[in-house]
Amino acid sequence: MKNIIKLLIAFAIANVMLASCKKDYIIGGKLESTTTSLTTYDYLKSNRFKMFDTLLMLVDKAGLKDVINQKGITFYAPTDFSINRYLQKKTLEAQKIDPFAQYTIDTLIKYDLATFSDSIKTYIIPKTITYASLTSNGVVLNTAKDGSRVIVSYEQTTDPNLGYNPVVNTIPQVEYYSLVIGPLPSPVVSVDLDPSVAIRILCQTSGLTTATGQLNVLSNSHTLYFRK
Q1: Is 209 helix (H, G, I), strand (E, B) or coil?
Q2: Predicted TM-score (pTM) of this structure
Q3: CA-to-CA distance for 176 and 55, rounded, in angstroms?
Q4: pLDDT, average across residues 205-227
Q5: Domains along the chain?
Q6: Contact between 41 and 70 (Cβ < 8 Å)
Q7: Quick check: helix, strand or coil at residue 225?
C-alpha cells in the first residue's frame, strides 16, 4: 500500500511539473521546438523529469539502443509511468496465487526481458510519420513487430484539458496511437472504434524530429504492452 501511495504522489507531482513546463511537453500537443540535434535515445535520456530512466534501463539491458535510434523510424515512447502501471498489474496477478508476491523491474529483467525486446517493437513504426501523412480518421500502419498493426490519427479536440479554448478560432489537434487487437471495420474511424478492436492511446507529446528519426511520447495513463 505504501508503494502505491508513493507512486500516486509521484504521478501527481509529475503531472504538475509536466503542465508547468510547456517548452518541454504539452499534454496532447506538440513541442514548441520540433527538432533536436540529439538522437532519440539521448533526447529521452536528457529529460529533466527523468520520465524515461526505467525505459532506457530496459533498452540497455536488452541491447536495443540501436533499435530505437534507427534512421527514419518513428518511436512512440512509453514513459516510466507506463512501466510502473504494468508492474503493478503483474504484481496483483501474482498475488492471486501468492499474497506476498511482488513483480518488480528486477523480475522483468530476470525473466521477461525477451518479452520486452519483442513487444517494444509495437511502439516502432519503420517509417517517418508526420502530421501531413495522417488523417483525422486514422491511417493503418504496420509496426516493427511481425503481424502487429496500429492506427495513427491526428484529430481535432474540444477537450479543454487538451488545449481547447472556445474563445480561440483555431481548434487544437492531437495524435492518437491505437493498437489493433481485433478485425477492423470499413471504413476505419479511429475515434469510433470499440475497445475490443483497438486500444487508443493519446500522445502527450508529438512531432519531434530527432537526429535519427521521429519521436512521440504516449500518455502516462498507458500501460506497457497495451495491457488492459
Answers
A1: strand
A2: 0.86
A3: 21
A4: 96
A5: 2-226 (2.30.180.10)
A6: no
A7: helix
Q: If you ran DSSP here, which 8-state letter would residue 10 be given?
A: H
Computed from CA positions of residues 71, 73, 79, 82, in that sequence, does the dihedral angle turn out positive or negative?
negative
179 forms bridges with which residues in the sheet? 150, 199
User: Three cell numbers at 198?
Assistant: 483497438
- Do 85 and 224 touch, CB atoms closer than 8 A? yes
Q: Residue 181: exposed, middle, or buried by beta-carbon count in 10 A (0-12, 13-18, 19+)?
A: middle
Cα radius of gyration rounded to whole Å, the chain: 18
The pairing of strands 29-30 and 74-77 is unpaired
List pLDDT tens digits, range 153-209: 999 999 999 989 999 889 999 999 999 999 999 999 999 999 999 999 999 999 999
What's the grid cell of residue 84? 510502473
**172 in Cβ contact with 157 (< 8 Å):** yes
What is the tens place of the pLDDT at every residue in 3-42? 443 433 344 434 433 333 333 333 444 455 799 999 999 9
Separation of CA 96 from chain center: 28
